[in-house]
Each structure stands twice: as structure tokens, then as C-alpha cells.
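Give me C-alpha cells for this 213-residue protein.
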Amino acid sequence: MKTLASITLFLFISLTLHAQDKKAKDLLDQVTAKVKSYDNIVIDFKYALNNSKENINQESKGNVTMKGNMYVLNLMGVTKIFDGKKIYTINPEDEEVSISKLNEKDDNAITPSKMLTFYNSGYKCTWDINQNVKGRQIQYVKLVPTSAKDQRKEILLGIDTQTKNIYNLIEMGKNGTKTTLTVNSFKINQPLSKNQFTFEASKYPKYYINKLD
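Here you go.
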């Protein structure tokens, strides 16, 4: 009887998890559809990196503008511009601009679609906690990488249940490092400059141009 009870409990938990997985996947699909419906997205965010064992506590603010397959990312004093073909990394501290081509096969390559829809493959997703953040209902979905080689233990993705936009992302590394990205403002369909995603070398006359490809 004890064995039967254990099997019944296991089946109940499995069915519950399956239902949660479907709810989580449905919510993520709604987020993906919402993101794809925008002409462009402008996000201001806060980035925090913590590791108590290594006594590391870093915080920084950043912003990113995305349109189609192009973006401009500003973080920690460095600007990255992707015009759809090449990535321009501008480092004022070193007075250097690195130019490289995007490797589509590189899983770590950053593109706008990956920034906001990275969760669509390579993860097992489950329904997690719901929190009230200043009157906003934030539903969390837990993402666990399916690859054993992945150095991330899990990711919590917070989604505003009303707008279906991402509110924050909390990443836990296997080495104890916690990375948190919180969206401070999320704007869509903004009037952008015609040269928004164009690298203009004339703005950096004294910079060393490092062509990596």
C-alpha cells in the first residue's frame, strides 16, 4: 500500500508539473507574440551582479534600443551597435572601436530576438511564484537549462501579467553568482533617428579601430 501511495503521489506531482509547464509556456508565447508586434523597443534597465562568496557586488544602469535585427546597447560605459551585419563595440576608456561580424551559429551572440525571446528553446519551464510589485502583478516562470554544460543553475523570468512585458530577469549561476536585470522603463514604437543603428567613424577620430574579421 505504501508503494502504491508513493506511485500515486508521484503521478499527481508529475501531472501538476505538466499543467504548470503548459501555463508557463503559454505565458511565454504571449510575451513572444507581444514583442514581435512592436516596431521598436526602448528599454532602460538596472543591472546587478552579486556573489557573496567572492565578495562581489556590482550595480550599473543601462539602456537598449531595438528594431528588427538591429540594436544599440549601452552598459558599463561601453556601447554596442549592431547594424544587422556587423557589431561595433565602442570603449571610450580605451579609445578603441572593435568591429566584428555576427556569428549566427554562436549561441552567445546577442541579437534583439535573443534578448527578449531567448527562453523559447534550451530550457525546461515551470510556473513559479506571483508577486505584487507596486501594484503590478508579476508572474515568475522558472527556466532550467537542459544542457548540463550550461553554467547557469536556473533563471527566473518575471512577467507583468497585464502588459505581458518582461519586468525582470534573475539568473543564478552554479558558482553562486546572482545576476539581476530589472526593467525601469519599457517604451515601444518610438521616433528613432534614421542613423540610429549606423556607426559613424567620424565621431571617433582618435580611436583605434580594431577589425576582428
